[in-house]
């Protein structure tokens, strides 16, 4: 199978640059749980981003949504299949479970325990708005523990200690925590709390784990 060809163009990524340079044979890889977007979630997202832009006009809504289970790492091409097979074996015994992601929180990429670890591109500083998991944290830690074991097999970085599991909603370049925390954060949380049926909307049953390596996607169904 042919290796992917990658040409970096920061203009296509909001001025961001790669966290690590592309080299032939190196495939950017991460493990995550995908969130399948529903129409009412898009409505809530629009409300949150629209309101947050009154404090930070440069915010950009995310296009895909997930919870990270690993850092972004680099795999050599010939490692991909054994890496995926090891993931498959370690994740095979996990059952489906529910999470509640209903706490609005501001993140930055300055502190490793708070950065959005699935992004392959980073600016010098970025700020995110996300929905933090308030129930289901233990199950996510169990998944991370198994993913970490796979990372260790391949001498790759493991996940961060004491992670804040979250679904990123929007991002902007620069440190805008001063604008988004405090009053803005309280108002965003109020929007979530008041949104019709938000408790049901943000209570998610996770049914699969995914791994993205370069332009390849691998799925691992939960039981």
Automatic annotation (TrEMBL):
Catalytic activity: a 3'-end uridylyl-uridine-RNA = a 3'-end 2',3'-cyclophospho-uridine-RNA + uridine; a 3'-end uridylyl-adenosine-RNA = a 3'-end 2',3'-cyclophospho-uridine-RNA + adenosine
Keywords from the named record: Hydrolase, Lyase, Nuclease, Nucleus
Keyword set includes Nucleus: yes
InterPro entries (alphabetical): Usb1 (IPR027521)
Domain of life assignment: Eukaryota
GO molecular function: 3'-5'-RNA exonuclease activity; lyase activity
Identification of the protein by name: U6 snRNA phosphodiesterase 1
GO cellular component term of the entry, any: nucleus
Pfam families: HVSL
Organism field: Casuarius casuarius
Stated role: 3'-5' RNA exonuclease that trims the 3' end of oligo(U) and oligo(A) tracts of the pre-U6 small nuclear RNA (snRNA) molecule, leading to the formation of a mature U6 snRNA 3' end-terminated with a 2',3'-cyclic phosphate. Participates in the U6 snRNA 3' end processing that prevents U6 snRNA degradation. In addition also removes uridines from the 3' end of U6atac snRNA and possibly the vault RNA VTRNA1-1.
One BP term from GO: U6 snRNA 3'-end processing
């Amino acid at each position: 199978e042919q290796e992917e060809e990658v040409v970096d163009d920061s203009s296509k990524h909001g001025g961001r640059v790669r966290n690590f340079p592309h080299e032939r044979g190196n495939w950017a890889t991460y493990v995550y749980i995908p969130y399948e977007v529903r129409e009412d979630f898009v409505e809530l997202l629009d409300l949150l981003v629209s309101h947050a832009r009154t404090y930070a006009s440069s915010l950009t809504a995310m296009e895909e949504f997930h919870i990270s289970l690993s850092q972004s790492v680099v795999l050599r091409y010939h490692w991909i299949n054994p890496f995926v097979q090891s993931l498959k074996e370690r994740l095979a015994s996990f059952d489906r479970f529910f999470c509640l992601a209903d706490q609005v929180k501001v993140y930055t990429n300055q502190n490793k325990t708070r950065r959005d670890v699935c992004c392959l591109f980073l600016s010098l500083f970025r700020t995110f708005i996300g929905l933090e998991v308030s129930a289901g944290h233990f199950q996510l830690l169990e998944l991370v523990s198994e993913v970490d074991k796979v990372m260790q097999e391949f001498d790759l970085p493991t996940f961060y200690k004491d992670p804040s599991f979250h679904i990123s909603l929007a991002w902007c370049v620069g440190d805008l925590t001063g604008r988004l925390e405090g009053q803005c954060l309280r108002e965003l949380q109020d929007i979530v709390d008041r949104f019709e049926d938000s408790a049901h909307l943000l209570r998610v049953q996770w049914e699969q784990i995914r791994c993205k390596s370069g332009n390849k996607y691998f799925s691992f169904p939960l039981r």
